[in-house]
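Minimal example, chain plus adenosine-5'-diphosphate.
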Amino acid sequence: MTQPQTHAFQAEVKELLGLMIHSLYSHKEIFLRELISNASDALDKLRFEALTRSELLAEDSQLRIRLELDGERRRLRVVDNGIGMSRDEVIENLGVIARSGTRKFLEALRQRGENSPELIGQFGVGFYSSFMVASRVTVTTRRADLARGVRWSSAGDGEYTIEELDGLPRGTSIELELRSLESAEGEGAAQDAQDFAEASVLRELVRKYSDFVEWPIQMAASHFEGDGALKRSTAPDGVEVVTLNSQRPLWLRPKDEIKPEEYAQFYKHLTHEWSDPLETVHFKVEGSSEYTALLFIPGERPFDLFEPGRDRARVNLYVRRVFVMADCEQLLPTWLRFVRGVVDSSDLPLNVSREILQHNRAMAQIQKRLVKKTLDALASLLANRRPDYQRFWEAFGAVLKEGAVMDAEQRELLAGLMLAPSTRGEGAVTLDEYIARMPAGQDKLYVLRCADVEAGRRSPHVEALHARGAEALLFVDPIDEWLLDTLREYKGKSIVALERSELDDASEAAKFERERQERELRTVLEQLESDLGEHVQRVRVSARLVDSPAVLVDDAGSVGPHMERLMRQSGRTPPKRKRVLELNAQHPLVERLKVLGQNSEREQLKEWSELLLGQALLAEGSPLPDPSRFSKLVSSLMLAAAK
Ligand code: ADP
């Protein structure tokens, strides 16, 4: 035994705990679901390890979760005889060190206002939630393969003590010193505050949130004297207990028997999320390979979706009801990493490892089927529940786009699931909707990569399209740089990125006219090319401008302005590129350039060309090569105008 040592929580954890304790009044009861779910995971892990090391089970082979209540002293213990934790695991897991992304999460929380339970739920509060109902939490645990155990205790005020102990049973006990009802109400609790020191309240919560947990959740029968409906049994430790849950794994029950609430509760148990899933996909496959899959599409983006290392699909693998592996990456590709759920296989061996799965042909078939079912579900969401699909798209669209980049086979299908805002306004549209409303004569899909939707709508790149009654779809996600390099056509129509390519003329006559203007402006264009040679490789007459005098475009395949911004943001220097400056031959300024060129006012023409380039850069949101020179030129123009 060691002396208890006192340590401090990391600052972010302290803040998060403070927020939870003081701002969550209406969701307190979920603490029990969270603790039971952790206990059930710990039992799963033990059973799995014991497949190869049966001695781990020796001392106590009946795995269970026990709720031990001392109502008078207001003590509740959630006890499991699962895998347990070592000293290091206790410190690492029990929320004294901030997980990656905690700071970002706290910022988001502050922006949205503190009382945002859904947001806190996205963080997966888990164990922390005990502090919503307890003034002190004491964890006593011994890892199955270690002789010594650990006691960790904290009042949630920023400090914890830790000491090592001998003689502990295997597994984990979480003891809560429950706050009194009065003190909970004093903090603004709901009127109908539940008393978690009541056995009947706990029983109801188990039924509501954790009924399908595979392990028995027991309580001493003495709490339920006189209730004949409960089945009693004597546990190996001699205690007479009742089992509170039905223990039927939800995914093995027939689909038409399961209520939506039951799916939702299971989803919350599995993910530690607070909000309901957006869609549930539940199916059974029989034949050469037999399995049941229960998949969920969440309604909210988890805060760490784009964190490095968060690229594994989040589906757990079971073999004949036995938990085998969390987050099994062979089940779904990384671009479906937002899907949560379980797959229970009837024919994989129990001792499968990740290495074996990698080369397992049946597994590849399962993945294929899961992908198809998930994409079918998304397509039907898009067709039948547009507002929900919109929500899904905002949360996870960028991840699906990764699929369109990486998976050539699914590319067209995934492109069909995309939503993009249009330069026309009015909500986001699909590519099919875009095609359906193309004006007669348009045979290509026009898109524009831009910094944000507003900038895209105002961009000079789309002026002529609008004048022709056409529109462009706007792409603002970082992934779109790659997406539109790979996705070159959809349903036989080419996709044209406006900021890259030359826009076709509206008609033969327009083409003829543009070529005529090009000849007429030849001298000026050449003068500009030589004046701006450092920045642009060509100056030409544009087919796309109506109101603006000039616009910059890129050659297909070069690094675009959007990509440049991204590279700068991540601290890299983009390669220098030379671009194409397009002029609007109808614009009075360009008319004026012609005169300047003819009158051989070379110096002034040079200044004007710099100003035009500067304007075009500003319009697309890019920095100026020499801002002070630009503002000097603007001042001298203003002075000249004032004379
Ligand atoms: P989450 O369950 O979302 O990972 P928690 O904060 O609830 O987050 O728990 C953090 C970690 O602590 C768990 O992932 C697990 O490794 C460990 N843990 C929590 N409770 C137990 C328990 N009863 N037995 C063993 N390990 C546990």
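Residues 34, 38-39, 42, 80, 82-85, 93, 95, 124, 126-127, 172, 272 surround adenosine-5'-diphosphate (CB under 6 Å). The chain is about 40% helix and 20% strand.
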